[in-house]
Amino acid sequence: MDVNELLQRYAVGKRDFAWADLQGADLAGSNLAQSNFNRANFTGANLKQANLSQANLTKANFSNVDLTGANLTGATCRKANFTGAILAGAILEAVDWTGATLPDGTMFEAIAAAEPETDTPLEDAAVISSEAARKETPELVETLALSTSARPRRTTVKEFQADLPWPSLLLLGVGYCCFGFLIGMHPGAGLAWVIAWLGSIAWLFEESLTWFAPLVGAIAVMAAAGVSVVLLAVCGVVTFTLLVMLKFLGWSWRAAVKDSLWVGAIGAVAITTASWLFADNEGTGAILVSGKFPFAILLLLGVSGAGLGAVAWGQMLGTGYSRKQTAWTFGGTTALGLLGGCLLALPLRG
């Protein structure tokens, strides 16, 4: 979605812009009050003097966004990412910062009720008046985060394990174990290991890339097994055709490329799975289960497990784990899964 499309929709009364991709957009001075920007991506955007009062900014990405003088009165910023954002002069009255990552990288945790003996009441810590906001610098927000001890404190193994999303992590590990087994059955596939693991942590760069993780793992398996020219040609044509169509419909280049690659990758995985699952029985025309039947099942299990388990990082951040803790846990789980699959494949490959 580009800036013109966004402002045109807002002008005719539209307010739902969930998941909008507005990376680098120039929205300085724009009136976007009471809009729904749930999970929207504003990375690097210019929002100087913008009006975002009463807006739903839940889980939105404001990394490195210039919000100088912006009006966020009454905005809901739950679990939003403001890392590196500029909030000088911003109006931050009655903002809901629950679970939000503040400019210095610390996480704000709302206090349910002020303790009777606390010198500074909740209102002083969580609500910043418009007059004070205009006078203070971004350091005010950093002080706010530090004063509430927002960074998770998990100093023991027991504390660290207490809130881990074990079901999601288990699914993630099983999915990548399947990928590791399939890659391990094909010697000399060093690059495939790197592709599979890097794809699993792509969410560190952009949240929406989470859903590419299972597809990248499957593509790594296909690269290790050898990709046919016909498959590349078919998927390339599908991807290019969809890209042209989306651009014709007015999509941004970033969104069009991302969604086109997503569809193309799904097509590649589906075709590969079908080719492994069924085969022509020596030219007789009978479609039977092929010799690669177990490979097809493992590929489907890998995609399913990795896809269902990919939400683990969001669950960890949502329960108070730091981004660093989440990255190590998530990346370690996928790495162990790949290693386990490789070890299982060693005695079996020829």
TrEMBL record:
InterPro entries, per this entry?
5peptide_repeat (IPR001646), Pentapeptide-BTB/POZ_domain (IPR051082)
Q: Which SUPFAM superfamilies match?
A: Pentapeptide repeat-like
Which domain of life, per UniProt?
Bacteria
Species whose genome carries this gene = Trichocoleus desertorum GB2-A4
Q: Does the keyword Membrane apply?
A: yes
* Protein name as catalogued: Pentapeptide repeat-containing protein
Q: Which UniProt keywords apply?
A: Membrane, Transmembrane, Transmembrane helix
The portions of this protein that span the membrane are 164-182, 189-205, 217-249, 261-279, 291-314, 326-348
- Entry keyword Membrane: yes
Q: Which Pfam families match?
A: Pentapeptide
